[in-house]
Amino acid sequence: MILASQSPRRIELMREAGFDTRVIPANIDETALPDEGPFDLVERLARAKAAAVAKEHAEEGEPVVAADTIVALGGELLGKPADEADARRMLHALSGKTHQVATGVCIVRDGSAESFVDITDVTFYELSYDEIDAYVATGEPMDKAGAYGIQGQHGRMLVEKIDGDFYNVVGLPIAKVVRALSRT
Ligand SMILES: Cc1cn([C@H]2C[C@H](O)[C@@H](COP(=O)(O)OP(=O)(O)OP(=O)(O)O)O2)c(=O)[nH]c1=O
């Protein structure tokens, strides 16, 4: 199969699940549409990534999997931080609150597409300024939606509880993906 993603976590999850995975990242515009909600956004982007790669690269019968992950806090969408100041701003916003992590997944095979969105609630401990500065200094937040990685050695210390699939927070709800692949 083809994984249309540059995310090291997604690549590792697909390979650990036993798939012979060709990695061909999609290059699409990830800007949200005006008034687009988080769930519509991640599903649309996953569909666009899978379609773009399938059109150019997929062989007959070869499935293409794509995903997109975003953090939603109330009405605010948090993607990847632009810089360290942006990462600090996001982490302050998440401190002491529950947010949602939404991952859209799309599987395209032989021209037909199936997509879904998985949602996990994540609750952060209250974080002090010093804790946030120290976390940003580790470099972990920079390429991750919401400016944290739950799987990271430092990021895991921010999280009080989750409700939903852990792997969805990491960027790919692997059990659902494998079940969907076995159906397509
Ligand atoms: C919230 C959270 C996000 N993330 C990551 C998963 C995704 O890689 C990233 C969100 O960015 P995405 O735009 O979903 O994906 P990507 O740009 O890394 O890869 P591609 O578009 O090629 O598929 O944030 C974590 O690793 N841990 C976390 O706890």
From TrEMBL:
<feature type="site" description="Important for substrate specificity">
    <location>
        <position position="69"/>
    </location>
</feature>
<dbReference type="InterPro" id="IPR029001">
    <property type="entry name" value="ITPase-like_fam"/>
</dbReference>
<keyword id="KW-0546">Nucleotide metabolism</keyword>
<comment type="function">
    <text>Nucleoside triphosphate pyrophosphatase that hydrolyzes dTTP and UTP. May have a dual role in cell division arrest and in preventing the incorporation of modified nucleotides into cellular nucleic acids.</text>
</comment>
<dbReference type="GO" id="GO:0005737">
    <property type="term" value="C:cytoplasm"/>
</dbReference>
<protein>
    <recommendedName>
        <fullName>dTTP/UTP pyrophosphatase</fullName>
        <ecNumber>3.6.1.9</ecNumber>
    </recommendedName>
</protein>
<feature type="site" description="Important for substrate specificity">
    <location>
        <position position="9"/>
    </location>
</feature>
<dbReference type="GO" id="GO:0036218">
    <property type="term" value="F:dTTP diphosphatase activity"/>
</dbReference>
<feature type="site" description="Important for substrate specificity">
    <location>
        <position position="151"/>
    </location>
</feature>
<feature type="active site" description="Proton acceptor">
    <location>
        <position position="68"/>
    </location>
</feature>
<dbReference type="Pfam" id="PF02545">
    <property type="entry name" value="Maf"/>
</dbReference>
<keyword id="KW-0378">Hydrolase</keyword>
<dbReference type="GO" id="GO:0009117">
    <property type="term" value="P:nucleotide metabolic process"/>
</dbReference>
<dbReference type="GO" id="GO:0036221">
    <property type="term" value="F:UTP diphosphatase activity"/>
</dbReference>
<dbReference type="InterPro" id="IPR003697">
    <property type="entry name" value="Maf-like"/>
</dbReference>
<comment type="similarity">
    <text>Belongs to the Maf family. YhdE subfamily.</text>
</comment>
<keyword id="KW-0963">Cytoplasm</keyword>
